[in-house]
Design a protein that fits this description.
The protein is an alpha/beta fold and 201 residues long. The chain has 5 helices and 8 strands, in the order αβββαβββαβαβα. Strand 4 and strand 5 form a beta hairpin. The N terminus is likely disordered.
Length: 201
């Protein structure tokens, strides 16, 4: 069947407007350039998480960052890096802190790491894992607290996040989660004091 000139014009207009709409959608905008191994926190080790465990984004342009979520691995530093590199794990935090204070970054802060078990919290937060076990107070060393506090202070300064218990939270406080970390042995008053002391004036 022959197609009328009017039908072709209308169809063309629909395609044109559809294309404009697609190009104007936020996700159609090119992402900022990335360099392999690029860090957001100076001195950290880069240990890339598998792409199945995070989502490319352009935070804070597309999702404002207003939270830091504190996690505990329930295992070793090495086991966390191994899990985050496994595409079947389906989760990763932005950082992992070892007992001696060493820090690894596994996901860029630009991107959405699957760490909180809640999509909105993933999109608006930076997740920091800590080596150890929630039931073992000995997991949380002085070096770990000091290093983690400096990292959190840097994140808070970068995104103008208030240093308080509303904006620096445990995984247990994320709505809908079934996790208990960082657990009863995590010293929140001590940690917040260290973060405040490390935050630039």
């Amino acid at each position: 069947m022959a197609t009328s000139r009017r039908g072709l014009l209308i169809g063309g207009a629909v395609v044109a407007f559809g294309t404009i709409g697609y190009l104007n959608r936020p996700h159609a905008r090119p992402h900022r350039p990335r360099r392999p191994g690029e860090l957001d926190y100076a001195g950290a080790q880069w240990a890339a998480a598998d792409p199945a465990n995070w989502r490319t984004a352009d935070r804070p342009d597309d999702y404002g960052i207003d939270r830091v979520v504190i996690h505990v691995v329930q295992g070793s530093f090495g086991s966390a890096l191994k899990a985050f590199a496994d595409p079947e794990h389906k989760a990763a935090a932005h950082y992992v802190v070892r007992k001696d204070g060493h820090v690894a970054q596994t996901v860029r802060e630009l991107d959405v790491a699957f760490h909180a078990g809640n999509r909105k919290y993933n999109e608006r937060s930076v997740g920091i894992e800590h080596e150890g076990f929630v039931e073992q107070a000995s997991s949380f060393t002085e070096a770990m607290y000091a290093s983690s506090a400096r990292l959190t202070a840097a994140v808070c300064a970068r995104y103008r996040i208030a240093v308080d218990r509303t904006h620096i939270i445990g995984h247990v406080e994320v709505p809908g989660t079934d996790h208990t970390d960082p657990g009863p042995h995590w010293d929140w008053p001590r940690y917040l004091a260290l973060v405040k002391a490390a935050t630039p004036a």
